[in-house]
Design a protein that fits this description.
By secondary structure, the protein is α+β, with helices and mostly antiparallel strands. 27% of the residues lie in helices and 20% in strands. The protein is globular.
């Protein structure tokens, strides 16, 4: 099944931190200029990006394509945050188009939505982060994690773990090169944009 900026990328608990496959204890595998519409909230009269995402997420849950326990509001808020505010209109158009094929979601993205999806993916590739992967060796309560995502065409990674003195330290890498280290949060989940590594990444919010 084809998945792109679907809610299936996400694990709901990650809404407390950073975007889009989680592996480890309790985790699950995830995932042209089409006119960067900004954060205006979708097409006139239509739902904004988060609401359009929530709508298709709930539909996919109903039809068995996403797990019933998924928190759509948290997952979609995280998706839009990582995608970047400049892509909200494109994402709203894509998710709204997906609704036409919600009942057949196991068959993948509706063919008639290819233009909307291409525009959204192009926008996110240019302005946001795509393809998040995370590991939590001891679960999200274990204070040890690693997350990576392609942002602005470069791989950004956050690797955090506890030190002997009880602090959580994080290594921040871009394309495999360490660009800095910083002290993570008390309950660190390796957030790419809102964690301590943002000081070095300087990713658009």
């Amino acid at each position: 099944m084809r998945r792109s900026i679907r809610t299936g990328w996400l694990v709901s608990v990650m809404a407390l931190s950073t975007l889009v496959a989680c592996r480890g204890s309790g985790g699950e595998p995830s995932g042209g200029d089409g006119g960067h519409g900004g954060s205006g909230g979708g097409e006139a009269g239509g739902p904004d990006g988060v609401q359009a995402c929530v709508d298709i997420c709930e539909a996919h849950k109903m039809y068995g394509c996403d797990p019933p326990e998924r928190n759509c509001a948290e997952s979609c808020g995280l998706t839009l945050m990582l995608a970047g505010s400049g892509c909200e209109d494109e994402l709203a158009a894509m998710y709204s188009c997906y609704m036409s094929g919600a009942a057949a979601c196991e068959d993948g993205v509706p063919a008639e939505c290819k233009d909307e999806e291409d525009a959204a993916l192009s926008c996110v590739a240019a302005d946001g982060c795509i393809g998040l992967e995370c590991t939590y060796p001891h679960g999200v309560e274990g204070n040890e994690c690693a997350c990576s995502s392609t942002c602005l065409s470069k791989k950004h990674e956050v690797q955090c773990g506890p030190e002997a003195d009880g602090k959580t330290m994080c290594a921040c890498l871009v394309d495999g090169v360490e660009v800095g280290t910083c002290e993570g949060a008390e309950r660190e989940v390796c957030h790419l944009k809102q964690g301590c590594c943002q000081e070095f990444f300087n990713l658009p919010l």
